[in-house]
């Protein structure tokens, strides 16, 4: 009996692999930018599972790029150092002392945790920030926010070189200013700018909700850009979802083929989205 069940499990696994073929063919060589938010970065087991999915993507011929956040980890370190911090419209007001902590945390432990997790699964990941190889040059977003940057000049050449060598880039959302400043960039904004610079096939924004919800609290599985504007105007899209949907619109205007907002804490979220008919989360496409 036990053996029969086991056989059935293997048959189901083989059928699942077989059903993935059209998706594997569709995404062969595709560039997929994955933004991993701080809230979506869970336990060591969840990180291991995420890293495994990324290595699998690369193994089957995609070019994954990870752009990460780490807001909660920055908050924890600022608290330890007794530095106060506040957000205005989803962006952290960032003075000189704060930007040092942001860089230390994001380019340090957060970036290296992801790099190490991918490498432990047999991939080859390299950690960068937008400062490396002229990847992301920024202007100040607004003087009242201090060292918060808006990406204005992107150079993705290094990323193409890494793809050619089967290396997975893991990018912290910091940018260089034209006068030697370090700018703190919202993780969603950085991921959108990088996806647009790469003309990525997909931008996956991994967060802590299962997608964009309508006024009844149900996830809307497919959204056109006009509908997002409507839902934002009526206040259904609010708070932390605003920078995500704005990023989605900017990325699509910048040449990204589609953006998906999905729950990064769900097991195998990226694989489910890319390689099954079912998909996951909210798919945002041009009108
Ligand atoms: N229409 C909506 N659908 C889903 N989530 C929404 C919506 N409007 C606001 N939100 C909020 O946006 C949050 C996601 O943004 P945020 O917390 O900034 O994520 P992250 O830390 O992953 O970048 C959700 O947890 C939810 O509270
Ligand atoms: C300007 C700004 O707000 N930068 C963010 C960067 C990290 C981030 O975006 O992290 P999550 O994706 O986890 O929210 C910050 O300082 O928190």
From TrEMBL:
Site (Transition state stabilizer) residue list: 35, 244
Enzyme Commission number, as recorded: 2.7.2.8
Record has Kinase as a keyword: yes
Residue ranges of every copy of the Aspartate/glutamate/uridylate kinase domain listed in the record: 31-262
Catalytic activity, reaction form: N-acetyl-L-glutamate + ATP = N-acetyl-L-glutamyl 5-phosphate + ADP
Annotated localization: Cytoplasm
InterPro entries (alphabetical): AceGlu_kinase-like_sf, AcgluKinase_fam, ArgB, Asp/Glu/Uridylate_kinase, Glu/AcGlu_kinase, NAGK-C
Binding site for substrate: 70-71, 92, 184
GO molecular function: acetylglutamate kinase activity; ATP binding
Source superkingdom: Bacteria
Family indicated by similarity: Belongs to the acetylglutamate kinase family. ArgB subfamily.
PANTHER family, per database record: N-ACETYLGLUTAMATE SYNTHASE, N-ACETYLGLUTAMATE SYNTHASE, MITOCHONDRIAL
Name of this chain's protein: Acetylglutamate kinase
């Amino acid at each position: 009996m036990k053996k029969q069940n086991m056989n059935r499990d293997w048959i189901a696994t083989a059928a699942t692999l077989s059903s993935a073929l059209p998706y594997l063919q569709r995404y062969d060589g595709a560039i997929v930018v994955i933004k991993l938010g701080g809230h979506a970065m869970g336990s060591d087991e969840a990180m291991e599972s995420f890293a495994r999915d990324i290595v699998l993507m690369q193994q089957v011929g995609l070019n994954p790029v990870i752009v990460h956040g780490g807001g909660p980890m920055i908050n924890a370190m600022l608290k330890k150092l007794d530095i106060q911090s506040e957000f205005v419209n989803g962006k952290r007001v960032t003075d000189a002392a704060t930007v040092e902590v942001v860089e230390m945390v994001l380019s340090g432990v957060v970036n290296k945790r992801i790099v190490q997790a991918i490498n432990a699964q047999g991939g080859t990941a390299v950690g960068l920030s937008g400062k490396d190889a002229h990847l992301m040059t920024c202007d100040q977003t607004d003087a009242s926010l201090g060292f918060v940057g808006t990406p204005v000049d992107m150079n993705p050449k290094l990323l193409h070189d890494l793809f050619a060598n089967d290396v997975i880039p893991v990018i912290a959302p910091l940018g260089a200013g034209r006068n030697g400043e370090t700018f703190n960039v919202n993780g969603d904004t950085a991921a959108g700018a990088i996806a647009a610079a790469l003309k990525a096939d997909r931008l996956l924004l991994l967060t802590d909700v299962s997608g964009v919800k309508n006024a009844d609290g149900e996830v809307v599985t497919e959204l056109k850009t006009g509908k997002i504007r409507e839902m934002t105007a009526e206040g259904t899209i609010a708070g932390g979802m605003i920078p995500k949907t704005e990023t989605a619109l900017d990325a699509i205007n910048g040449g990204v083929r589609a953006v998906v907002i999905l729950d990064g804490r769900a097991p195998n979220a990226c694989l489910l989205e890319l390689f099954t008919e079912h998909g996951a989360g909210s798919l945002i496409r041009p009108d």
